[in-house]
């Protein structure tokens, strides 16, 4: 029985392993057939860069999804970027993408950094997930995804310190 034939169960998040790269490439081809899916070299480069990558694994250790966050800049002025989140189609809708994003945002919060990402303008499910976590649209990148030419929204989530400050201010107004 393959992972796609099993009933969805809890997934465990752990650091993405280099041995998962072939599976990541396989998932990329499932998710982004009309665009330029990431290659094994792209995943290796991301892991080599020191970016924060997590895998979501089923009980047998099969990779069901992955997510990556780059931390840029210097202490006190960090910015972060969600570089990718992908979940095999059969396991979408079971909270795996949500769990991956939450874990990436926790890492961004640890360094009190704003978070940026790009998302296809027609990916309503992903946009709704990002908005649930406080992202807002700050721009459009025309023709961002290739070769399809699909547009992307650039979205931003403020650093946790700004969110806390805004929350404190709204409580003061009550």
From TrEMBL:
* GO function terms (MF aspect): N-acetyltransferase activity
Q: Could you tell me which residues belong to the region Disordered?
A: 155-174
Ranges of residues in domain N-acetyltransferase: 11-160
- Report the InterPro entries cross-referenced here: AcTrfase_RimI/Ard1 (IPR006464), Acyl_CoA_acyltransferase (IPR016181), GNAT_dom (IPR000182), YpeA/RimI_acetyltransf (IPR050680)
Domain of life (superkingdom): Bacteria
What keywords sit in the KW lines?
Acyltransferase, Cytoplasm, Transferase
Spell out the Pfam families in the cross-references. Acetyltransf_1 (PF00583)
Protein family membership: Belongs to the acetyltransferase family. RimI subfamily.
Family annotation (NCBIfam families): rimI
Protein name per Swiss-Prot or TrEMBL: Ribosomal-protein-alanine acetyltransferase
Where does this protein come from, organism-wise? Haloechinothrix halophila YIM 93223
